[in-house]
Design brief:
Order of helices and strands: HHHHHHHHHHEHEEHHHHHHH
Radius of gyration: 21 Å
Distance between the termini: 36 Å
Shape: globular
Amino acid sequence: MHGWLALVGLVLIPQEAFWDLDLYRYWMWLGLHDGQWPVLSGTWVYPVGAVVPMLVAALGGTGGGSSYADVWALLVTLLDAAALAVLLQVRRPGLPRSGATTVGAWWWLAFLLLLGPVAMGRLDAVIAPVVVVALTLALNHPRITSALLTAAAWVKVAPGALLIAVFVAVRRPWRSVVVPAAVVSVVVVGTVAALGGLPHVLSFLTEQDQRGLQIEAPGATPWLITALWAPSVTRVLNEPLVTWELHGPGTQAAADVLGALFFLALGAATLLLWWRREQLGDRLWSGGIVRTELLVRGALLLTLAMIVFNKVGSPQYMGWLAPPVAVALALRLPGWRTTAWLALGIAGATQVVFPWFYDGVVLGSPAVTLVLAARNIALVVLLVHTVISLVGPLPDDQPDALRRQDRITSASPAA
């Protein structure tokens, strides 16, 4: 499967699928040949940790025609293989090993295949397998999970939000989650400061403030549809960021509103998870599957909040959906069938839009525009479904679950 993704990105349509890798290669060339390192020499759109995987891929060379993209593809394949191995080891006691371990692994591979080359050719492809491993360890080893998620957040910000779900689901959150995250951050910031880049270490937080309403963002859907017939709404290339945005009546206001709603949505998700924790009370620490359900479903809720209420809608963001779902399926948590199918549909629709028919979106093709709109609606549906699942009875609350007393290793109250 990874061979196919690499074939598409390296051979069939490299400019469309793996274009970002040329940018990564160029940044590493500047660092290695001119000493102009991201963050150390100026502001950068990514956190400083993103230099690490980009520099690893530089083992293949940084010049034109080098093997940079090949090494990157190999790196992602190895990381995904490690995540797959972890999924194959996660199981609920009392279930046959084969029945308990293969569902999540097969789903993970299917999701990556449906998402397409963007699941390999972007920075997000490096952090997704790290998040898979982190979530499987969360309740037994929250300190390791906190360190992994924080390190991943210094590569791409999104995993940092999942620390909220871990914070809610462990008994001693300040000691088990906040302290390890702080230690990792101090090490990163201290290293950057020692190398002279302290003034720019947080530049990634402001570098994208000037973005408009990106054409793929869920919040852009009304204007995306309107643009099919109304000349007042236009598709404009933001050349500095190389992204397509929608310009027209209300688009800038929508971008501004989404900029605020993004943080409000994360805050609302945090309050919902904390309310659920308090409502569950002692049942949360009884050793059943309810705590694992709260953790994994909470991680998915936070992920969806970051996607749905975002003025940016890059296709690689859909990869953030995979880790919570894959872990839930590997643990055979009940009630995840609808979520799993919706996520697969979202991945497949995303690949149709990017990279295969992205020109159709830019040029206003009704067919591919409607596919993108349907994908965005599915994201909202999945968000609503996730909220309902969290507000309603969790699996351990069900009488049949209580009678069976199914317990899973990762839900041990030891943490």
